[in-house]
Amino acid sequence: MSRSCRLHLSLVTQGSAFALLCLLLGTLEIDALNLTLNNSHNATCLHAQWQMNFTIDYETVNHGLKNVTIQVPSNASYSGSDCGTNDNVSQIKVQFGSGFFWNVNFTRENSAYFIDIISFSYDTSDNDTFPDAKEKGKVSTSFEVNTIGVPLDEFFRCRSVMTVTEGNVTHNYWDILVQAFIQNNTVSTKEFTCDEDESIVSTTTLTTVPVPTSKPIPKERPHPGTYSVKNGSAICLLATMGLQLNITKDKVTSLLNINPNTTDYGGKCLKESATFWLNDSNEHLEFLFAIKNGNRFYLKGVNVSLTFVNSSDFVAANNNLNCWDAPIGSSYMCNKEDTIAVSDTFQINTFDLRVQPFNVVEGKYSTAQECSLDDDSILIPVIVGAGLAGLILIIVVAYIIGRRKSYAGYQTL
Ligand SMILES: *[C@@H]1O[C@H](CO)[C@@H](O)[C@H](O)[C@H]1NC(C)=O
Ligand SMILES: *[C@@H]1O[C@H](CO)[C@@H](O)[C@H](O)[C@H]1NC(C)=O
Ligand SMILES: *[C@@H]1O[C@H](CO)[C@@H](O)[C@H](O)[C@H]1NC(C)=O
Ligand SMILES: *[C@@H]1O[C@H](CO)[C@@H](O)[C@H](O)[C@H]1NC(C)=O
Ligand SMILES: *[C@@H]1O[C@H](CO)[C@@H](O)[C@H](O)[C@H]1NC(C)=O
Ligand SMILES: *[C@@H]1O[C@H](CO)[C@@H](O)[C@H](O)[C@H]1NC(C)=O
Ligand SMILES: *[C@@H]1O[C@H](CO)[C@@H](O)[C@H](O)[C@H]1NC(C)=O
Ligand SMILES: *[C@@H]1O[C@H](CO)[C@@H](O)[C@H](O)[C@H]1NC(C)=O
Ligand SMILES: *[C@@H]1O[C@H](CO)[C@@H](O)[C@H](O)[C@H]1NC(C)=O
Ligand SMILES: *[C@@H]1O[C@H](CO)[C@@H](O)[C@H](O)[C@H]1NC(C)=O
Ligand SMILES: *[C@@H]1O[C@H](CO)[C@@H](O)[C@H](O)[C@H]1NC(C)=O
Ligand SMILES: *[C@@H]1O[C@H](CO)[C@@H](O)[C@H](O)[C@H]1NC(C)=O
């Protein structure tokens, strides 16, 4: 079988801009195709979300060549899609309208998987879609992609439009997120981005199989913000923190840094509780502090709601936390990265944290109680030091014993 393939990938920037505009307007939004497959053990083995349309050229009885663009309706069927029996070939099958059939095969080789063959067939005897078509009947096309190698345990992402013309059909694919051969039942958090998304090149022709390379999502440390809440004219709560939100939605994890420069904040100080909130156009985050045993404070609750442009809201809450525990009259400090697990789908990574929700005097932090993570920096030299001292002791003891033995030996001679 010939492995040669023509795959013309072109970046249609106007198309992307148009799609973005549609998303923003929220009016012309087309449903994305969306499929999650299980294997025979009910473990997730494939997840895919993508958009596609097809432009088909066909000959008419008396108006020459015509073309029609086919959109995939939201009630398309995925029946027949599966991860294969021995997990070496997975396939997605999409059927819709009157006789449209689309198929993609994924194959696996060692530590990578490939988008292998795409086939598409249509039936020109459908008079509604192909009015006055000269030839009536079923037409099948297929082509080998096989140029996109993705490391196992990474998901493939391509927001740009990929265009392929095969026979009389022009295929457009965009907003792709796919992972085949999922390991351990969870969609990876590692993204493998298509070249189109990375470099702005007007037309690229791929002829060779690129070596799979890992491209983890770089995410910088969030900038710490400094916040203070007043009760009347006096500061009653102080907080300094860099916050990174880790959101898992539709099995995809994304990281979001809070930018203190564009974030509004506030709070309330009561006798036995305090709240502190951060707000910007897309996110609302709230912290609830409480007092325990009359002498310590702690972070009791976190509430979050996020608004995404193109999908439903994300909310998470937990009011049974027990974090940031310190005596009242002191502040809690943690310079190292720490994590608050709010829910299965939401966690907050904190950086350069210092917080004092009660008994702030003259608008300044009181002495800090440091988190155990920060203590490591002191603990490690202590352990090393103790180890060295122990070693010296052993050497000294060995020396003394050695001296004694040789002395004893000398005596007997
Ligand atoms: C088909 O998809 C392409 C790429 O997103 C887009 O530019 C084009 O407008 C779509 N065609 C129709 C008729 O929606
Ligand atoms: C995919 O489909 C599932 C249910 O079929 C739905 O819960 C989920 O929100 C969909 N995701 C997207 C991105 O459309
Ligand atoms: C996939 O497996 C999960 C359990 O792991 C189950 O809840 C879900 O219903 C299964 N989905 C399908 C389509 O069988
Ligand atoms: C898989 O999950 C479905 C739905 O939850 C259930 O009906 C089916 O029995 C499960 N199959 C196995 C093999 O666990
Ligand atoms: C479809 O036909 C129109 C004119 O009828 C033409 O402008 C357009 O370029 C054609 N599109 C394709 C993909 O052939
Ligand atoms: C899908 O929806 C169209 C109308 O939008 C309808 O004509 C068609 O019968 C539906 N197909 C299925 C499989 O439900
Ligand atoms: C790959 O896809 C084709 C359809 O294009 C299908 O007929 C074939 O069985 C698939 N190959 C394997 C090994 O499953
Ligand atoms: C389509 O139109 C042709 C002629 O106009 C007719 O013979 C045929 O029966 C029609 N097919 C269907 C499925 O309606
Ligand atoms: C394209 O369409 C024309 C006329 O409809 C047909 O004669 C030709 O065989 C088709 N080509 C392919 C590759 O299907
Ligand atoms: C899957 O789990 C096994 C053991 O549970 C582990 O050794 C392996 O590294 C995991 N693989 C991935 C890709 O997470
Ligand atoms: C984000 O959360 C997921 C699971 O909730 C976890 O596996 C992943 O390591 C987290 N990533 C970061 C950067 O915190
Ligand atoms: C916030 O503003 C400061 C100074 O105006 C700037 O140095 C810093 O880079 C900004 N931070 C972010 C995340 O934009």
From TrEMBL:
Please name the InterPro entries in this protein's record: Lamp2-like_luminal (IPR048528), Lamp2-like_TM (IPR048524), Lysosome-assoc_membr_glycop (IPR002000)
Compartmental location: Cell membrane; Cytoplasmic vesicle membrane; Cytoplasmic vesicle, Autophagosome; Endosome membrane
Q: Name one GO biological process term.
A: lysosomal lumen pH elevation
Q: Where is the Lysosome-associated membrane glycoprotein 2-like luminal domain?
A: 222-360
The family line of this record is: Belongs to the LAMP family.
The membrane topology of this protein is: Single-pass type I membrane protein
Q: Which UniProt keywords apply?
A: Autophagy, Cell membrane, Cytoplasmic vesicle, Disulfide bond, Endosome, Glycoprotein, Lysosome, Membrane, Signal, Transmembrane, Transmembrane helix
Q: Which organism is it from?
A: Vombatus ursinus (Common wombat)
Q: Report the leader peptide range.
A: 1-32
| Pfam families in UniProt | Lamp2-like_luminal, Lamp2_2nd
Provide the Lysosome-associated membrane glycoprotein 2-like transmembrane domain boundaries: 380-411
Q: Where are the transmembrane segments?
A: 378-401
| Highest taxon of source | Eukaryota
In Swiss-Prot or TrEMBL terms, this protein is called: Lysosome-associated membrane glycoprotein 2
Cellular component per GO, a single term: autophagosome
**MF annotations from Gene Ontology:** enzyme binding; ion channel inhibitor activity
Q: List the disulfide bonds.
A: 158-194, 334-371
Predominant subcellular localization, coarse grouping: membrane
